[in-house]
Amino acid sequence: MDARLSRHRTPSRMRREILPALLLLLGFGAALAPRSASAQTASADTVTLVWTAPGDDGLAGTADHYEVRMSPAAITASNWGAATSIGGAPAPLPSGARQSLVVRGLTRGTTYYFAIEAVDESNNVSALSNVVRWDWLYDTAPPAAPTGVSAALENGTDALVRWSSNSEPDLAGYTVYRRISAGGTYQPVSQAGFSGTQFIDTTIPAGTTQVWYQLTASDVSGNESARSASVSLALGGTVTLTTFDLQPAYPNPSRSPAAVNIPLSLPTAATASLFVMDSGGRRIRTLNLAGSSGGPQVAIWDGRNDAGNSVAPGVYTAWLVGAGHRRSIKLVRQP
């Protein structure tokens, strides 16, 4: 940090210069995986903290080290010194990088509060980060599906995919999926947790005449959103999606009384039916698609049969039939 911002020269400004960004809680579990964290067992005693690295002078440079503390009471600037110091924090990375720390030896059922400060090489200390409360409750709500997706030709052979930014505070990043034929399977083409709101696909196979893209958003707890609307790109530019498709449902597996979202796409003038069958091949529920417009949409199954009764736990199959096509996906209902 610039010597002009030393503690004895400008203490008030010094406290604002190297703020750790949002501190986020993943939930108790294993160390952070490339895309998400996951729980270990019911007796797990760990939690993973995730935050965005601050800079040193503003957004420039890197801090020297972190001070991470926890307490059974809400942490404030006045009681920071009484909070328990947690060792093992990683060395700070450049501003904007995502960093994490696994805290072990916690007592299940006890509420904990966590906060962090960044310190530079001259011992200038940042203001306190936001305080995170951990009460052993999982975050199972996925982010909203990305919107505003578009694709355009780039450099004659590549595709530039753009989308609108999600607003969730615990957003971890996006995944860009691509397929290269109308009936093909979407495969991820971006790295996990890709940040930003545009992606250049430079890996389109030679000879491909049309590609399709979808996006998902994921949060720091590993919850992945539904797929975005599909966009198709021909060598001459963007074209309208007219495919017949059924995408993976979410949440899946699901538990009563949670509803299941079933993303699908229909050609503009298609007439189609969506129904759910049990493991014995019996149709138990027909989901009304009458009046649906073409393009991407989401059908919702509430876990009930046509009589209005909740179905038993088991494996079910959703079928989308119409316009000369049939698509199916498995649905798992848990107790």
Automatic annotation (TrEMBL):
Transmembrane segments: none annotated. CDD domains: FN3. Residues 1-39 form the signal peptide. PROSITE patterns: FN3 (PS50853). Residues 33-143 form the Fibronectin type-III domain. SMART domains: FN3. This is Fibronectin type-III domain-containing protein. The lineage of its organism: Bacteria, Candidatus Eiseniibacteriota.
